[in-house]
Each structure stands twice: as structure tokens, then as C-alpha cells.
């Protein structure tokens, strides 16, 4: 559990860097790779917790990721949902 809490702290610090990149509204392939890695780490962590209940947010993130035609337009929404999931994980471990 302590390792998971440390991972959440690292992800919260990384979230501010993601926000800076997202603010540019023009993303390189490297930026998209950073987004995807950030998203996958959070969703995988949430899915690995058996008693963590937030599958609707994970499902929404996955649906938005599948829409490749509007992917760039969806990125701010995907990141917002991912950060909300991260906040939920943080609250889950504070209990």
C-alpha cells in the first residue's frame, strides 16, 4: 500500500507537467506518448485495486481514447477524466 501511495504522489507531481504540455494545444508525437503513458499508469493502477469503485470513469477514458478521429480534440477531456481518477485514488488511500 505504501508503494501505491508513493506512486500516486509521483503521478500528482507529473500531472502539473502534463497540464503545461496540454496548455500548448499543439502536441508532438512525444507529447502524445507522455499523455498515453500518464493515462495508462493511472488507469492500470485503478483497475488493479479490487475494491476501488470507479469503473465508469475508466470506461469513459477508454471510450474517448478509441475515437481516433477526434483524438486531439478529446485530449483535454481525457486528461481531465484521468486527473479526476487520480484524485479519487488519492482520496481512496487517505481513508
End-to-end separation in angstroms reads 12 Å
Number of strands: 0
**Number of domain modules:** 1
- Helix proportion of residues, in percent? over 70%
Q: Which spans of ≥5 residues are poorly predicted at pLDDT below 50?
A: none
Please trace the helix and strand order, writing H or E for each element: HHHH
Considering the chains and any ligands shown, give keywords for the structure.
single chain; mainly alpha; 95 residues; globular
Notes on the structure:
This protein is mainly α and 95 residues long. It has one domain. Helix content is 82%, strand content 0%. It has four helices and no strands. α1 (2-23) packs antiparallel against α2 and α2 packs parallel to α4. The two termini are 12 Å apart.
Give me a quick take on this structure.
Helices cover 82% and strands 0% of the residues. With 95 residues, it is mainly alpha-helical.
Task: Please specify the SSE layout and strand pairing.
Elements lengths: L1 H22 L5 H20 L6 H12 L4 H24 L1
Amino acid at each position: 500500500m505504501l508503494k501505491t501511495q508513493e506512486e500516486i504522489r509521483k503521478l500528482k507531481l507529473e500531472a502539473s507537467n502534463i497540464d503545461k504540455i496540454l496548455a500548448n494545444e499543439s502536441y508532438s508525437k512525444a507529447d502524445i506518448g507522455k499523455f498515453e503513458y500518464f493515462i495508462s499508469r493511472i488507469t492500470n493502477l485503478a483497475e488493479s485495486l479490487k475494491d476501488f469503485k470507479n469503473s465508469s470513469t475508466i470506461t469513459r477514458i477508454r471510450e474517448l481514447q478509441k475515437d481516433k478521429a477526434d483524438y486531439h480534440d478529446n485530449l483535454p477531456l481525457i486528461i481531465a477524466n484521468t486527473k479526476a481518477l487520480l484524485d479519487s485514488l488519492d482520496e481512496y488511500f487517505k481513508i
